Fold this sequence. Notes:
Layout: H1 3-15, H2 18-25, H3 29-43, E1 48-51, E2 54-57, H4 59-83, E3 91-97, H5 99-116, E4 120-126, E5 140-143, E6 152-167, H6 168-174, E7 188-191, E8 220-222, H7 225-233, E9 238-242, H8 243-247, E10 252-255, E11 263-271, H9 278-295
Parallel strand pairs: 3-4, 3-5, 7-8, 7-9
Antiparallel strand pairs: 1-2, 5-11, 6-9, 6-10, 6-11
Helix pairs in contact: 1-2, 1-3, 1-4, 2-3
Amino acid sequence: MDWDKLRVFHAVAEAGSFTRAGERLGLSQSSVSRQIGAFEHELGVPLFLRHARGLQLTEQGETLYHAAQEVAGKLALAEVMVTESMERPRGPLRITTTVAFGSMWLTERLKDFIEMYPEIEVALIVREDELNLSMRQADVAIRLSPPQQPDLIQRHLITMRHGAFAAAEYLERHGMPHELTDLDQHRLIAYDETYHPPFTNINWLLNAGLEPGRRRQPAIRVNNIYGMYRAAAVGMGIAALPDYMASLTSGLIPVMPALEGPEHSIYLVYPEELRHSRRVAVFRDFLLRRIAEDRR
Length: 296
């Protein structure tokens, strides 16, 4: 099978339209459309269903797409092996993690990493769903739970603790709670559990100190930890947040500091194939060193 045609097909399947795929490939929309049409004619099967909203893979197209993904992953691995033969670590390093952790904790530290390794091309992908590292959608991930896939290497980075926090403006207007029963009279910011939460027992503040089965009604639900932080920072109420958020800003005040929420471990995860990657190794060592420095 002609790799050039498979490469164009893969780009179209990823982009969902001839126009966006052409932008990625540096080709015109009409050129991409013609190549896909010729590819379908050569194979004797339709690969896409055309409709007004874009393109949808057919059953045969889905089969070919998974094969193309595997080929693309192997080519990316070959690129890694070639670039790792250079004296200094260089080349792309795609890092993925959650929106909150990536935006608030990681970006602040990546500045130093980029200055130390200017030839490493860092791309940070922040999103709540997990990218498939085995399919090389990213090189490394910082995850808030251990990976379930057996072919991934995991390295424990740090244990994160949760506490209750509020803005000074809110506490001035509503007072500081001193007992768990005081929370019944306060506005609480909760995670919207209709979305996949990054932690277990993420809304522990809603039933802290209550009898089993009872729960406080939150003032607002947010489907993102960073959104919960912003809501607390502007004085909307009390939020249960990871401790690293409070350490990055002076705008939040601990509420009942003796009240301890759940703990969660944070892991660096990467595919077995990148075990000997120098880019991954220097990034791993950098993170461990910065975490150790933060604890001093």
